[in-house]
Amino acid sequence: MKQLISLGCVMLSSICICFANTKTESKYTAENVTFYQTPLVCGAAPEIGCGSRARPLLLELEQQESIKEAWLNRPGTVIAVVWNSTGKEQEKAVTARTLFTKHKVAFDPISKKKEQKNQLSDFTQRGKWYRSAEVDQLSIEEAGVIAKDLVNPVLKEGIINEEEAAAIQPEIEAYFKEELVKEWSDEKLKDEKTYKKWQSSVKQIYAKHIGEERSTKVVGLYKKQQECKQQKKESCCEKGKKKSCCTKSKNES
Residue 189's domain spans which residues? Predict the structure, then answer.
């Protein structure tokens, strides 16, 4: 009997959670939801949004009395703000502008009726939008992409073998999973010190598995790739240069 009661409670809890997390057309309308185009695409994984950049803004948006919910779409191209009341459009605009500007996130309100309708339709679909507590899922996914991009070129270059890559990649992924779910300001995320810290940590992971000499070669390969991106391949990809230098990389976040 106790087992049946326990099972019933679990089922009831699951049903409640399901209803709580489900969006419905009647709950969200063009009157109480504003959509803003944003450039919060992840540099390392362009198909998803940057959870590290979006989280602080989403958190502060939801701390406002006039705002009920704030969501980022999966690609990181739109933020949806659900207002507590219809209110005055001018007041809404001031609130949004103040917070987007504070967090240095460019934005452009979606005003065309057709685009609003399309966004509302997409907004009601589960699994496509994330609130502040959920964007860590994007950061964790990004960590996997970063780890793959930091290992595959090194393997292709022959600096490491398959067995070493299989040991190194999970450690790099675990490291970035911890790093990317931290609270990051725009300044700190773009600070050169942050990237130097990440580079040093990745090198340490490599050194643990393949030694100092080969890990130094790994850093050298990364530098060549970075130079290639900065120069837009104009000088790096000239005839006679090594092909590995011109390999496309996504190691920006």
Answer: 136-246
Give the mean model confidence (pLDDT) for residues 122-131. Answer: 86
**What CA–CA distance (Å, rounded) separates 102 from 192?**
21
* Residue at a domain's end among 107, 130, 153: 130
Average pLDDT over residues 208-222: 94
Burial degree of 135 (CB within 10 A; 0-12, 13-18, 19+): buried
Closest residue by Cα to residue 205 from 154, 242, 239:
154
Q: Name every residue whose Cβ is closer than 8 Å to that of residue 247 and which is 6 or more positions away in sequence.
A: 153, 156, 225, 228
Tokens of 64: 């406002």
Measured between alpha carbons, how far is 253 from 64 in angstroms, rounded to an integer?
Answer: 29
Q: What is the pTM of this model?
A: 0.73
Backbone conformation region of residue 232, classed left if phi is above 0, alpha if psi is from -120 to 50, else beta: left
Q: Which amino acid is at 210?
A: I
